[in-house]
Write a structure and sequence with these properties.
Order of helices and strands of chain B: EEEHEEHEHHHEHEHEE
Strand order of the largest sheet of chain B: 6-7-8-3-9-10
Number of domains of chain B: 1
Helix content of chain A: 40-55%
Largest sheet of chain A: 6 strands, mixed, barrel
Structural class of chain B: alpha/beta
Largest interface: A-B, 28 and 36 residues
Number of domains of chain A: 2
Order of helices and strands of chain A: HHEEHEEHHEHEEEEHEHEEHEHHHHHH
Number of strands of chain B: 10
Helix content of chain B: 25-40%
Number of strands of chain A: 13
Oligomer: heterodimer
CATH superfamily of chain B: P-loop containing nucleotide triphosphate hydrolases
Distance between the termini of chain B: 22 Å
Radius of gyration of chain B: 18 Å
CATH class of chain B: Alpha Beta
Number of helices of chain A: 15
CATH topology of chain B: Rossmann fold
Distance between the termini of chain A: 31 Å
Shape of chain B: globular
Strand content of chain A: 15-25%
Shape of chain A: elongated
Radius of gyration of chain A: 32 Å
Number of helices of chain B: 7
Largest sheet of chain B: 6 strands, mixed
Strand order of the largest sheet of chain A: 3-4-10-5-9-6
Chain lengths: 450, 233
Amino acid sequence: MYDVILPFKLFKSSRLTILAVLAVAVSVFIVIVVMTVMNGLTVDFINKNHGFYSDCIVSTDSLVGFGHYDEFITTLWSRDFVESVSPVINTFGLVKSESSGRNAALSLMGIVPESHIKTTDFAQSLYYHKDNPSFAFAPSYNPQLSGCVIGVDLLVERDQWGRYIQWPYLPRWSYGITCFPLTPKGTLVKTGISVSANTKTFYYSDNSNSGLAKIDSTMVYLPFEQLQSLTGMDIGQKRTSAIFIKFKDGFGIDKSVEKTADLWKEFVGQKSDSAVASLFKNVNVQDFRSYRRETIAPMEKEQAMLLLLFLLVGLITVFIIFVIFYMIVGAKNRDIGILKSIGASGFGITRVFLRYAVLTGLVGAVVGIACALIFLDNVNSLENWLYVKFGFQMWNREIYAIGEIPNRPGVALPLEVAAAAIAACLFGAMLPTIKAARQNCVDVLRVNQI
Amino acid sequence: MTENNNILTCQRIFKSYPMGAVRLEVLKGIDLNIGIGEFVAVKGASGSGKSTLLHILGALDKPDKGDVFFEGKRLSAFNGKKINEFRNRKIGFVFQFYHLLDELTVLQNVLLAPMVRFGAIGWLLGSAKAKKNALRLLEELGLSERIEHKPYQLSGGERQRVAIARALINEPDVILADEPTGNLDSETGNDILKVFEKLHSTGQTIVMVTHDDRIAQKASRIIRLADGKIASG
């Protein structure tokens, strides 16, 4: 029973315990705060990519695109695991603002709003057409005009809090969009000896805030068929750059992507005698993570690096606990001798100090978690206060597409960190505890008698 | 209990300690019998090996050579668990510097020995009886008003009486006391000595190390150690 009571008594009485608890609490605090923020940013980034690109993308990097896409879409619609499908053209063009006269080379995305909003989160990214996203390309002042949706960062400014300062009404802006059409063989369409360029005027109908900074600052969305015509993808066999696919819940993305890849392989086999069969060579079937691996992978790598750093934090905590427990055991030499003189076993002494370590880890973890939760709960208002008072902002909202600093750690993270903190304490206290258990009580009592 | 009425027996005990490059011979073949109910004082000059002998008798230390028998059983044949049980139930130690745990109250210090004796479940069942015994002992030793005090709140004499209560709580066969009055003034020392005399009068076996002739005279037998050997007694 002494091995149950003494850990509490030692915990309450030793000043060194406060140092140990503080060391654990600080480590727990740092890990929870940083993991919450960084995980939040990574998860948010992955979710936004998922929302923008759907579950699965059948695509080619070639600006020529690939044909027979409508037949493959029909095939996909007949499958039970497919929720919705939408063709997408990805290309580039010159965009000239007809009011300011400014020119810019931008990314163009041709979409079919009716199917695209069912396949991706495009509808939620709109400002003026949130309630009727199917009409995203219909300017409210004249729905008969050809509309274009423009990436929010190309047009709309933000305040210091990162909020977009939207126009209360839709401005009458028009843009001349020029593309260089390509034949199915990949050559520029020519008129006589000069290269032909297609230009068409589009009217600003909405802006899109996908939350992906690079997309929102470079992308102009156009109606699928009109971009198809501008890029020459309607010459001969109609072509597209990509097909976005959303799978039904419960079918699993990985398995459904495999099924889609098999279907595509089979489809390509059936179309081997097509005049545009050569364009299938560069087509890939991938899930959104693989499709966006160039941007997602570095973030995931950063997360892995962060875990490594936290492993170092853990090791430092273990070392601090080791040092503090070594000092505690040194200070409690006499008590160990007394306990042994009244019959306590080495194992009993081990239990006393290991329970003491568990208690230290537990209290340190609780303090650290409580501080982290309070800090995270106030991190956004704290950042606002710092900005108002000192002009300091963690992430400049005029540059970064971050609304609020992620501050929801969930339940699992604090529990995992608490368990790791207790384990670190046990690990750190192990050697000093073994030393305590092996103390020769005569030596200890004699030294303390001098 | 042995036929010859000895509770503790030492046979040819040798003990040495490393002292730099050489070994310091402390005990050089000690033969000793302690009878049941005896009050034995072990006397000798500083460094004569009195405390070492006491530690060996109480299985806190091991001799280099020779054997110690408790009720006829060789201590060196005991395993770790048996040795711990022996220290807990058969022997009660009283040290010169009291050696109480500062974090615990007087009552908790006295209850420490039964706590070591019982496991968690045993303690749940036996704690009431142990507490009753502890309170009775503390009352007998005049400490009933001090049970919730911490050791630093007590005088030297009071601390030593707490240490005696802790030594007695498990009703040991032998009390081994190492200079129990050495750190006390003469008046308080006399009070403590009276406690030991009272214990002896109830049949308690006591082995007390002292270098004070006046205290040794209270014992029923005096053993004098000189140069690592028993000079008389």
